[in-house]
Specification:
The complex is a heterodimer of chains A (289) and B (279). Chain A is an alpha/beta fold. Chain A has nine helices and 13 strands. Chain A is globular. The chains are: A alpha/beta (289), B mainly alpha (279). Chains A and B meet through helix 2, helix 3 and helix 4 of A and helix 4, helix 6 and helix 10 of B.
């Protein structure tokens, strides 16, 4: 996909007890924003935790920034160039936003007090929290806490930014702010983000990887994912039989996804979500191995 | 200030100090009172304020003010740790330790208070205290670090600061704090003499054993296993009416051996704290 790959995931596996969370995932990602799409339990978080060096692969090969996270010195070098927002970042709720980001900055080896504080102010301003930096985290809304999480991920201008569902739980305005910020970050570095929102992928990502059951089932551009549904999305007056998915839209018509056009239906341009739904639908229809 | 019979004016030094806002409150009030009726000094202030060097100086002063306003508040524990010679940023990391919060230490004090109170008026005066005191630092270590305890644990692992250093730093601080509290409580025990200090070696032994086990298991699981074993041993000794033996030379020598062995495991396997987090 990319000429210079910051992230190489090659047949990576991982099990938790008898559960196979990752079953041979493989793709590469370079500069820009790469979106990981997939249903719950697809293995997105497990994969992102590996990329954040929090979890080691059970098998396969993972290369980050040209380094091998299985080696201690490489892992340290990766962590020095990494920003990570977990799916559910924990906070010291009695800390202010400034104090918390300052705490993480110390863990990121920023020992000079003055320059560290300048950096904390910079990332809080980037996340739109300049006015809230003195408020206790327990007094912040869920969206603001998410922004505190994002701010700490941006400390030190990392080359690789891992964001696990950064837009989850945000209202539309906050989501747009996040999208604007993430797209800016992705202009000159590698961002990997997981999401359930196909709108996020369409708005932000240069590359999309769809995962299901611990495997990669699509790796391409958002346009290529959308084109999977070209010629397979129809609008009809009545609910159609024999299509993969069909639902009534707000305008009273039925949107049908599938290969067999209902009688009297008209073909329409697909969306990214149509491509995603058809892709997962096909996976679901495959016979079990 | 330039003084002359009947009046005075601001000299250049005072003008600069006033513009930089580094005069004391009385001088500033005096200057402002004078500025109300002296156009010449007002002009001098205006000229100094517009001077690029002065503007740059004020910007630095303002940055310093902002930094002081933003700077994290330094709590009692953090201040104390810093005074003991720990670096300011390490002291900051310790300030987040759940088992170094004032509320935690206060609850420990309460537990020890109950143990001391229960020891008064009993034949086996120190038994209850001997059961409780060594578990205090073990509980503190369990509550100092780990995914079950530390809300920012995962963020910490993904950061370059060594996990083993953070863990050991927190554990040593918790051990010192809780052992200090237990030591103070022991002085209030009815029995005098050597038996008052008999809890110290078991406390160190159990704490180091918890740390040694934490190279393989989570700190909470390690602490639970150690605490359970300790409780079973003490209960058995109470049943056999042999609790006094815990303060005896043989038992204390065994605890010393446990300390040495557990410390050796921690030294040899301390890298596991860093690598285990990535497994």
């Amino acid at each position: 996909m990319s000429t210079t790959s910051t992230v190489v995931v090659d047949e990576v596996t991982r099990s938790f007890g008898r559960t196979r969370a990752l079953d041979g995932v493989g793709f590469t990602a370079g500069q820009g924003v790469t979106g990981l799409l997939g249903p719950n339990g697809a293995g997105k978080t497990t994969l992102l935790r590996m990329m954040a060096t929090v979890l080691a692969p059970g098998g396969g090969r993972l290369t980050l920034l040209g380094l091998d996270p299985a080696r201690a010195e490489d892992r340290l070098a990766i962590r020095r160039r990494l920003g990570y927002l977990p799916q559910e970042p924990g906070f010291y709720r009695h800390f202010t936003a400034f104090e918390f980001v300052d705490y993480i900055a110390i863990l990121k080896e920023m020992t000079d007090r003055r320059s560290r504080h300048d950096e904390v102010r910079r990332v809080l301003a980037l996340a739109g929290l300049a006015e809230e930096s003195g408020r206790k985290i327990r007094a912040l809304s869920g969206g603001m806490r998410r922004r505190v999480g994002l701010a700490q991920a941006l400390l030190g201008d990392p080359d690789l930014v891992i964001l696990d569902e950064p837009t989850a739980g945000l209202d539309p305005e906050q989501r747009w702010r996040f999208r604007e910020l993430i797209s800016t970050i992705g202009e000159d570095r590698t961002v990997l983000m997981s999401t359930h929102q196909t709108e996020d992928v369409g708005a932000l990502c240069t590359q999309v990887v769809v995962m299901d059951n611990g495997r990669t089932c699509f790796d391409g551009t958002p346009r290529e994912l959308r084109e999977l549904a070209t010629g397979r999305v129809w609008l009809s007056e009545a609910r159609a039989a024999g299509v993969r998915l069909s639902w009534r839209t707000g305008e009273g018509e039925h949107r049908n996804l599938g290969d067999a056009p209902p009688k009297g239906a008209r073909l329409i341009d697909p969306t990214l979500e149509d491509g995603y739904l058809l892709l997962l639908g096909e996976r679901a229809l495959e016979p079990a191995a | 200030m330039t003084t002359a019979p009947g009046t005075w004016h601001l000299d250049q030094t005072l003008v600069r100090r006033y513009v930089d806002a580094v005069t004391d409150a009385v001088t500033a009030a005096s200057v402002e009172s004078h500025l109300l009726r002296c156009a010449g000094c007002r002009q001098a202030i205006a000229d100094e304020s517009a001077d690029p060097a002065s503007v740059a100086r004020r910007a630095l002063i303002w940055e310093d003010v902002v930094d002081r306003l933003d700077a994290p508040r330094v709590g009692i524990i953090e201040r104390l740790v810093h005074r003991l010679g720990i670096g300011a940023h390490d002291a900051r990391l310790l300030a987040a330790t759940p088992s170094l919060q004032v509320s935690w230490l206060a609850s420990l004090l309460l537990v020890l208070g109950f143990a001391v109170a229960a020891a008064h008026g009993r034949d086996e005066a120190g038994a209850l205290f001997l059961l409780a005191a060594p578990l205090i630092p073990v509980a503190g270590v369990a509550a100092a670090y780990g995914p079950d305890i530390d809300p920012a644990h995962e963020l910490g692992i993904a950061a370059p600061y060594r996990t083993s250093r953070l863990l050991l730093l927190r554990c040593v601080s918790v051990l010192v704090a809780s052992a200090g509290l237990a030591g103070c409580a022991a002085l209030a025990l009815p029995a005098a003499g050597w038996s008052q200090a008999a809890w110290l070696l078991p406390a160190l032994g159990l704490t180091l054993t918890t740390l040694a086990l934490s190279t393989r298991l989570s700190p909470v699981v390690s602490a639970a296993a150690v605490a359970l074993t300790w409780v079973l041993v003490v209960v058995k000794l109470v049943q056999l009416d042999r609790t006094a033996e815990l303060a005896g030379a043989t038992a204390q020598a065994m605890f010393l051996a446990l300390i040495v062995a557990a410390a050796a495991v921690v030294v040899v396997r301390h890298d596991q704290f860093d690598t285990r987090s990535a497994v």
